[in-house]
Design goal:
By secondary structure, the protein is α+β, with helices and mostly antiparallel strands. It has one domain (3-146): Jelly Rolls (Sandwich), CATH 2.60.120. It contains 4 helices and 10 strands. The chain has a 4-stranded antiparallel sheet with strand order 3-10-5-8. The mean pLDDT is 82.
């Protein structure tokens, strides 16, 4: 029953949150979220659209783009769109499947339902998101000190 958090730096040099969900954790999350099967090139979300969910790549690869510029490639067990779960701001980039992919979408409504029905799993997700934010803040502060 675990969610392990690891960090990796992508080709864009930004840290990527790496989730390692055991089978029990994946089953718990997937009963609240929606699993999407995507074909290569299929859009997950577009830039400037409302954001209300985060996504976990189960398999495949997702490309994050701003206009024609590729910002990142997200592989299995990595998440993207976390701010969409936490803040009511438009998407800052678009996301599409680079190859056939499977993603788990967790919306705010899913999380609220999880909080009521399975607070232990909701707390674990919040812990992961808190670690994500803390790591981004820490790395940002290090970057400012290096300048």
């Amino acid at each position: 029953m675990s969610i392990e958090v690891q960090w990796a730096t992508g080709h864009d040099r930004f840290p990527r949150l790496h989730w390692v969900l055991d089978e029990k954790a994946f089953n718990a999350f997937s009963q609240y979220g929606i699993v999407h099967e995507l074909t290569a090139g299929e859009t997950v979300f577009e830039v400037d659209r409302p954001s209300t969910a985060l996504y976990l790549v189960v398999n495949g690869e997702i490309v994050i783009q701003r206009g024609e510029h590729e910002v990142a490639r997200i592989g299995p067990n990595h998440s993207f769109g976390e701010m969409g779960l936490l803040l009511d701001v438009p998407r800052s980039a678009g996301a599409a499947a680079a190859i056939e992919s499977r993603v788990l979408e967790l919306s705010r409504e899913d999380l609220h339902r999880m909080q009521e029905e399975s607070p232990v799993w909701a707390a674990r997700l919040y812990r992961v998101l808190a670690e994500c934010l803390a790591e981004y803040l820490h790395r940002s502060a290090e970057g400012l000190r290096e300048r």
